[in-house]
Design a protein that fits this description.
Elements: H1 2-8, H2 12-19, H3 27-37, H4 41-51, E1 59-62, H5 69-80, E2 83-88, H6 99-106, H7 113-126, H8 128-131, E3 137-143, H9 145-148, H10 154-167, E4 173-178, E5 192-197, E6 200-207, E7 211-215, H11 218-234, H12 238-254
Length: about 260
Amino acid sequence: MREVARRLGISHSVVSYWETSKRVPRIEDIASYLTAIGVTGDAREAILALGRDADAQNWLAVGIPGISQQLTGTMECERAASAITDWSPHLVTGLLQTSDYARAIIGGGSLPAHEVEARVLVRMGRRDVITRSNPVRLTAYLGEAALHEMIGGSHVMADQLRHLVKAAESDTITVQVVRSYQGWHPGLIGPFVLYDFDGAPSIVLLEHHRTGAFVTEPDDVAGYKSAVDKIYQLAMSPADSLTLITQVAHDVEATT
C-alpha cells in the first residue's frame, strides 16, 4: 500500500481509505491507481466502467464476455453473507439446483455446448457456500409452479425434487412452498434474492434474462424485506412443503 501511494505521490492513508471502502475515489484516481499497479487492457476498462458509477446507490450489472460483473458480485455476496433468502416463483433456487436441472436451463438458449458446461460447473461450485463447514443459512421460498415446470424432462425433474427434499434435511437450509392462486402478493412481481451480512447492510439481487441489478438503497431493501415477511405468511410450513414436494416427485416419476 505504501509503495502504491509513493508511486501516486499521495498519502498511504488515502489509498487505505480507497481499499477499505471508506472513501470513493474519483475516476481519475482509479485510472492512476490501475496504472500504478499495472492493470491494463480489458480488465482496466471493466474496472473504470464500474468506477464511473461507484457512488450510485444501486447499480446494474450487465453480462460481458467471461465472468460477468453480475456473477462476480453474486458469488461475492453468497460467499460473505450470513443468511440468504431466495424467492423463486417459477424455477428452483440456483443454489439448490442439480447439475442436470441447471444444464437444462442454461443450455436452453443458443450457447455452445462448451460454454454451457463451463457455466454449469460454476453454478455447481457456488453450492459450496451451503455445504462448507460454516455454511450460510439459506431460506428458499418456491412458487408452486416451480415444482411442476418439467425442466429437462420427467427424470431430471424428479431427481431435482428429490434433491430439494434431501437438501432441506440440513439444519441451515429451509425450503417452503407458496401455493398458487392465493391472489396478489408482492412475490408475483418477480424473483429476488436478499443477502444479509454480519456488520454490513443487506443487499438485494434482481435477476433478469441477461442482466441483473443489485439494490443497496436502505429504503428499497426494506421494501424487499417487507415482501419476504408477506411471502413467509403465505408459505406452507417447511414440513408441509416437503410433503408436497415429495408427492409431486412421486407423481412425476409415475409418468416416466
